[in-house]
Amino acid sequence: MVQVIRSIEYVRKEAGVIFGNKPEAIVKLINVRGDSMEGTIEPGDLIFVDVSVPYFDGDGIYVFDFNGDTFVKRLQKVKTELFVISDNPRYREWTISADEMPMLHVAGRVMLSQSQQFGRHG
User: Fold this and answer.
1) Are 22 and 48 a contacting pair, CB within 8 Å?
2) 50 burial type by CB count under 10 A (0-12 exposed, 13-18 middle, 19+ buried)
3) Are 40 and 87 a contacting pair, CB within 8 Å?
4) Beta-strand pair 81-85/27-31
5) CA-CA-CA-CA torsion sign (64, 65, 71, 73)
6) What residues contact residue 24 under an 8 Å CB cut-off, 6+ apart?
7) 63 in Cβ contact with 107 (< 8 Å)
8) How far apart are CA 14 and CA 114, in angstroms?
9) Are 82 and 75 in contact (CB under 8 A)?
10) Which residues of 85-112 are buried (b: 16+ CB within 10 A; e: fewer)?
11) Rounded distance, CA 33 to CA 49, Å?
């Protein structure tokens, strides 16, 4: 049986510090699958995504759809292209050209990640 986290609750003051006083409606929680961001975000980690940023808003880690596939990757703008970067060196970077921008749909910008690593101690 797979356990699913249904909610995480924070005291309002603590949430304000952690999330920069952003309204709870714009912070979404996603469980990451895959290892392409390993080293920064591990498989199974939880990420907190600011969905009030549905566009590229400077270099950072984003959740986005490109041509029907969903990704959690680092985006970096160089001239007119967006570089799509995996922090795991086993994956190659790729680019989104100006002509391909209509295929890019940003869901939000990753604010934080929370490890889900478990350690057995007995």
Assistant:
1) no
2) buried
3) yes
4) unpaired
5) negative
6) 15
7) yes
8) 15
9) yes
10) bbeeeebeeeebeeeeeeebebbbbbbe
11) 15
Distance CA 46, CA 30 (A): 6
Backbone φ, ψ for residue 33 (5° rounding):
-110, 150
Whether 24 shows a pLDDT value over 90: the answer reads no
Three-state secondary structure readout of 10-43 = CCHHHHHHHHCCCCHHHEEEEECCCCCCCCCCCC
CA triplet 92, 43, 56: central angle to 5 degrees?
A: 55
Q: Evaluate if pTM is beyond 0.90.
A: no
Under a CB-based contact definition with an 8 Å cutoff, are residues 87 and 37 in contact?
Answer: yes
The pair of structure tokens assigned to 19 is 């999330």
Per-residue pLDDT at 84 exceeds 90: yes
What does DSSP assign to residue 80? T
